[in-house]
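Data card: per-record layout.
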Amino acid sequence: MNIKDEGTRPIRSEQDIVMARQLCRKLAQDCGLRLVAQTKLVTAVSELARNTLIHGGGGDMHWLIIDEGMRQGLRVVFSDQGPGIPDMDLAMTDGWTSGNGLGLGLTGSKRLVNEFEIATTPGEGTRISITQWS
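The structure for this 134-residue chain is written out next.
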């Protein structure tokens, strides 16, 4: 895997969520992702940025444009130092919600992208990595 470009944006406010979506849409276009793949990625970014702010108390979004063989992709990593997720099995169950949402944030995001990884430690925070390939 080769990293062609990368950067970091803070997620500390509602405006940061908007900026994260806009940045990822532009990066997805730059990577040559088709419109449907762009839309899926931006939807997942919006959900995960909101989770980072609301449940993680804010954090960072790190992005990488990557090459792997003949394909190019965009990897977006959200990290926070929040309370973590105490029950991953429950959190990854469709329909379960820790708030007033629809309970589709994590599982919906996972279905929207090509790769989804999550690591969490209660009391220490959460790190979620998503990748969309062209």
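Known properties of this structure: The mean pLDDT is 92. The domain at 2-133 is CATH 3.30.565.10 (Heat Shock Protein 90).

See the next section for split statistics.
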